[in-house]
Design brief:
This protein has about 220 residues and is of the alpha/beta class. It is about 30% helix and about 30% strand. Helix 2 links the parallel strand 4 and strand 5 (about 90-95). The relative contact order is 0.18. Residues about 215-223 have low confidence and may be disordered.
């Protein structure tokens, strides 16, 4: 079974092509000039398939990062994924960015993932050492967090890494590792496909957790 995964929710665009559990190609696309990396998603999907002598009709499933992360990136990624999955009538697997980042923990400890949500807020989730979610992704107040570094490895983005460092709390910044998150998304997609759930395209929805700042009224921001 061939399947595609793509992610434009985080710092880069990650696109992978898998055949069952084997990763055939894993591309990483950086920002280019003044254009955000998600703007190149469709063309890069076409190029990836073409370089492997495949067409979209050969793809039997899709996996995507549903967020939280870049509002524009999540919307672009999921819209394209839903259109393709609907047209081809294939499964669509939506995976939270926090679950993807949790796989960066290579220790025997449980995992806490924290991403900056601005204005003193953060996205927060926890997973056991086997990768099972023990606390679903939520929006939390940073100052209210209770973190145990003895039982949990903490994975963060750059902003939260620096914030925790000021409090003498050790964490792993995912951008410092420079890992190919596309491969992790592909591995998670394969695992979930093996669970034989329906995974209908209409069930894959964005995980924003909070409204984008553009939707907040000026009146409320002045109070």
């Amino acid at each position: 079974m061939y399947f595609l995964t793509f992610d434009t929710s985080l710092d880069k665009t990650y696109i992978t092509l898998f055949q069952d559990k084997n990763c055939l190609k894993a591309d990483i696309i950086e920002n280019h000039d003044d254009k955000y990396h998600s703007a190149f998603l469709v063309q890069n999907l076409v190029n990836l398939l073409k370089s492997n002598n495949l067409t979209m009709k050969d793809i039997e499933a899709i996996g995507v990062n549903i967020g939280p992360g870049s509002f524009t990136g999540i919307r672009a990624c999921l819209t394209i994924a839903r259109v393709i999955a609907q047209q081809l009538e294939i499964p669509l697997i939506g995976i939270p960015s926090l679950e993807i980042l949790a796989r960066l923990n290579q220790s025997e400890l449980n995992t806490t993932v924290i991403m900056d949500a601005r204005k003193g807020m953060c996205y927060f989730a926890q997973y056991d050492k086997n990768g099972n979610c023990t606390k679903e992704p939520t929006l939390e107040v940073v100052d209210n967090l209770s973190l145990d570094i003895h039982t949990n490895k903490i994975i963060t983005d750059a902003a939260m890494h620096n914030s925790l460092k000021e409090r003498n709390i050790e964490s792993i910044c995912y951008t410092d590792i420079n890992a190919n998150l596309g491969k992790i998304l592909g591995q998670l997609t394969y695992e979930k496909l093996k669970q034989n759930t329906t995974n209908h395209w209409a069930e894959a929805k964005p995980l924003y957790l909070q409204k984008p700042s553009i939707t907040i009224s000026k009146k409320n921001t002045l109070q």
